[in-house]
Design brief:
Helix content: 25-40%
Number of domains: 2
Strand content: 15-25%
Structural class: alpha/beta
CATH superfamily of the largest domain: Acetyl-CoA hydrolase/transferase C-terminal domain
CATH class of the largest domain: Alpha Beta
CATH topology of the largest domain: Glutaconate Coenzyme A-transferase
Number of helices: 16
Number of strands: 25
Largest sheet: 8 strands, parallel
């Protein structure tokens, strides 16, 4: 590390308690995303609760605890917001302590550049290198555009953060930083990969035949992507690529099986591209200082025009429910926010425009409600649910009963196809509902 950078580092070094003094009542403060949460600064800011009024904090996919949210149930001092719920943030929302911000990930940077004001950004980074750069690590997808917008930039050096290589905006230079905070951080609580269910494996079996050698994959979060990773690792497929907003252990499984080479990609050849990442210790070790990986802002990763340049781009996401018109609810159940829009729409549009590309939305055909009663995820028509993906942009849908393609299909064709992949116990009721809505062809035999 050069003496000039080290000298500047020392002049900007503050304790967490000193650094958070820049926050004023009424400010908007950003915590960025996931592992970018500023743990020490969050604790120090919460300690100032009684000195501050109406401070608004934004983040997303952050694990707990978020001290500013937990310390003030009145929300007179702090109000927390998220643009994609983690399981912890969902629980905060259920307690009335977290508000959702509707956001399409490809527009993340533009929202901040043109519409949102950030008084203070606080973000965890890896230690500074000899050239004066801090690495945004697995938070690269969102951090830089927020930092550029902020009036004041505070970085919290987290010794546990992996250093990732990137396409652009994976780092911030010390000259762009106002204050630096150091301190001991507990090792990350590593996420264990979700264990695939038999239904997950059945859905994956239906999707595998649609994949080809050289395909580039975007896999969502959850047990289904892990099931696909397992099955692809055991398949004859080869030379697969990665272009995904969120990197999980499913990709590590593919890499370890020798399936993930990225050598057939039209752009970013030889590199697996991602925006953010969360998973096991082994995943972070794989991403650390790996020249075969490139982290980019989501404005690049999720831009449909970028995704469309990748031949045989396959997008696989999940949902909560779909109605027989083909509308998809992927982020909430009735009025309850569960996750977020994320990049589902981005990849639906981008993958469908790719030469040989396919966009899948997957779900189990049923779920058990709180009383233990079996309910269908394929519904007659949404009533009060938040729609994530409109019927005009939904293409392949998959359950354990098969895979259908709604592209260019009429209302009766959609109803017929969707009912064909519903659980058999609910099909007759769905047919009756389709008839009542005049979207069941009279010449159908049932």
């Amino acid at each position: 590390m050069s003496k000039d950078f080290w000298a500047e580092y020392k002049t900007k070094l503050r304790t967490p308690q000193e650094a958070v003094q820049v926050v004023k009542s009424g400010d908007w403060v950003d915590y960025t995303s996931s592992l970018g949460k500023p743990i020490l600064l969050d604790q120090a800011l919460a300690e100032r609760r009684d000195e501050l009024q109406d401070v608004k904090v934004r983040g997303n996919l952050i694990s707990g605890p978020i001290c500013v949210a937990e310390c003030d149930e009145t929300q007179e001092h702090f109000t927390y917001h998220s643009w994609h719920f983690s399981s912890y943030e969902r629980k905060l929302s259920d307690r009335g302590l977290c508000y959702y911000i509707p956001m399409v990930f490809q527009n993340n940077a533009a929202y901040y550049e043109f519409f949102l004001h950030v008084n203070v950004v606080m973000v965890s980074v890896s230690p500074m290198d000899k050239h004066g750069y801090f690495n945004f690590s697995v938070n690269t997808g969102v951090a830089a555009p927020i930092a550029r917008t902020a009036d004041i930039v505070i970085v919290e050096v987290n010794e546990n953060m992996p250093k990732v290589h990137g396409g652009y905006d994976e780092c911030i230079h010390i000259s762009e930083v106002d204050y630096i905070v150091e301190g001991y951080h507990e090792p990350f609580t590593y996420s264990k990969p979700a264990v695939p269910t038999d239904v997950d494996r059945k859905i994956a079996e239906g999707i595998i035949p649609y994949l080809c050698d050289g395909a580039t994959l975007q896999l969502g979060i959850g047990s289904l992507p892990n099931a696909l990773g397992e099955m692809i690792a055991l398949s004859d497929l080869k030379d697969l690529g990665m272009h995904t907003e969120f990197c999980t252990d499913a990709y590590l499984s593919l890499y370890n099986a020798g399936k993930l080479t990225n050598k057939c990609k039209n752009i970013d050849r030889g590199k697996g591209v991602f925006g953010c990442a969360k998973g096991s210790k082994e995943l972070y070790e794989w991403l650390d200082d790996n020249h075969g990986i490139a982290a980019y802002p989501l404005e690049y990763v999720n831009r449909p025009s970028v995704i469309a340049q990748l031949d045989n781009m396959v997008s696989i996401n999940s949902c909560v429910a779909v109605d027989i018109y083909g509308q998809v609810a992927a982020e909430g159940s009735k009025a309850r926010q569960i996750s977020g829009t994320g990049g589902q729409l981005d990849f639906l549009i981008g993958a469908s425009a790719s030469r040989g590309g396919k966009a899948f939305i997957c779900m189990s055909s049923t779920f058990q409600d709180k009383e233990g009663k079996l309910q269908s995820r394929i519904l007659p028509q949404f009533n009060g649910d938040i729609i994530t993906s409109p019927r005009s942009q939904v293409y392949f849908l998959a359950t354990e009963y098969g895979v259908i393609n709604l592209e260019g299909r009429s209302t009766w064709e959609r109803a017929e196809a969707l009912i064909s992949i519903a659980h058999p116990d609910f099909r007759e009721d769905l047919i009756r509902e389709a008839k009542e809505r005049n979207i069941w062809r009279r010449s159908n035999k049932r």
